[in-house]
Amino acid sequence: MVECPYGNYASGMSTRVEVFVDECASDGGFAYDNTGLNAVSLRCFFSPDRAPTWITPHPGYWGEWGAQLSCRFPEVVVGYRLRVLAPRGTCKAAIDSYNSCQELQDKDDTAVTAIEVQCATREGVFTETLATNPIYDDPESDDTSGVWGPWALCSHGKAVVGIQV
Length: 165
Prior knowledge:
This protein is mainly β. The protein contains 2 helices and 12 strands; from the N terminus they run E-E-E-E-E-E-E-H-H-E-E-E-E-E. The strands form 3 sheets. Strands 2, 3, 4, 5 and 6 form a 5-stranded antiparallel sheet that branches. Strands 7, 8, 9, 10 and 11 form a 5-stranded antiparallel sheet that branches. A two-stranded antiparallel ribbon has the order 1-12. The protein starts with a strand and ends with a strand.
């Protein structure tokens, strides 16, 4: 787990995302693995007279860093939830049983497709939800958005101070 500096709380986030790519090799083979979410960075903040710091447990390998989303001061992050695309099968099984690029892409596991974090006052009053843009959207398929999981919320009066992946 990577934690904010002592006395700081998470007050925002940024995500590193590889957007959906619909590419096949010129020979019709599978040329691209859609990885979706690659990294999450938390914004740690203490007071307006100090610059925020960012913590990132792992920088990821692919994609671009998106917008830095922040709760309004003095609000803090008190929870999150993930939108996840269900497993589509193993790569080995897909390679063994499919011949076309499109059939392989239909088996490409991407997992997390979006993140939302909940902001609240230090008294625990929910104020706003920050959301990433959809990470993985395939216009050719109805099975791209995934399903939102339950909220993981801190106990009343507590806030997020770290992240583990």
